[in-house]
Every structure is written in structure tokens, then in C-alpha cells.
Design goal:
about 100 residues, 4 helices, about 0% strand, elongated
Length: about 100
């Protein structure tokens, strides 16, 4: 796995917490603490996301209600899209002629 150098400014309080964690968790390097903390935080977020419904996830992303559309779009989407494309391109819907038998 490719590695990257990350630099961060932290408060004295955070630095004290890092030193505490080094001792409490038995880590010798700050890198180990950061890696450990990020992996655990990411796992916690994945678990929380897995518990949410698709509606809740879309709501968090502010994707709900983000477009204006007719209220009957889900029932009549084919007709609405066809009319919209015809208006945009100035064409009428063409029906395929039946093939002679």
C-alpha cells in the first residue's frame, strides 16, 4: 500500500491526549495512534451507515427534493420524458411501422 506523509497542527490538549494514548494502548509512534483511530472511526461510520435506510442516506446527502418535477412523474415518466425530448429537439414521437407478415 502506498504511504503518504500527513502533517497536522494540534492543540496542547490534543498532544496530551496523544501521549496518554501512546502509553494506554502501548503504541510507540504517533503514526500508530492515528492509523488505529482512523480505522476505528471509519468502521464506526460504516456500521452507522449500514443501519440507515436508503431514504435516510438520501436525506443526509440532501438529495431528496432536489429537483422540480411533476407529482405524477413516477407513474407517467415515459410520456413526460418523451414530450420533453420532443420539445427540446423539435420532433414528434415516431412509432415504428408494423412489419408486413
Amino acid at each position: 500500500m502506498k504511504q503518504a506523509l500527513i502533517q497536522a497542527r494540534v492543540s496542547k490538549e490534543t498532544l496530551s491526549e496523544i501521549e496518554y494514548l501512546k502509553i494506554a494502548l502501548g503504541f510507540s509512534k504517533v503514526t500508530d495512534i492515528v492509523t488505529y483511530a482512523l480505522h476505528h472511526l471509519a468502521e464506526e461510520q460504516r456500521e452507522q451507515a449500514a443501519k440507515k435506510s436508503p431514504y435516510e442516506l438520501l436525506e443526509e446527502m440532501e438529495a431528496l427534493g432536489s429537483i422540480e418535477a411533476p407529482k405524477d412523474l413516477s407513474a407517467n415518466y415515459k410520456t413526460i420524458v418523451t414530450k420533453s425530448l420532443a420539445a427540446k429537439h423539435g420532433t414528434k414521437r415516431r412509432r415504428h411501422a408494423k412489419k408486413p407478415s
